[in-house]
Amino acid sequence: MANIKARNADGAEVYLKAEGAGSNVDPYAPNSLTSLIGIRQVVNTYQLVDPGFTADFPCYGHNKIGIYYKVDSINTSVDLNVEISPDGANWAKIGADINVTTNGVYFVSNPILVPAQFVRGQFVAEAGGADAVVDFWFVYGF
Question: Is the pTM for the entire model greater than 0.70?
Answer without folding.
Answer: no
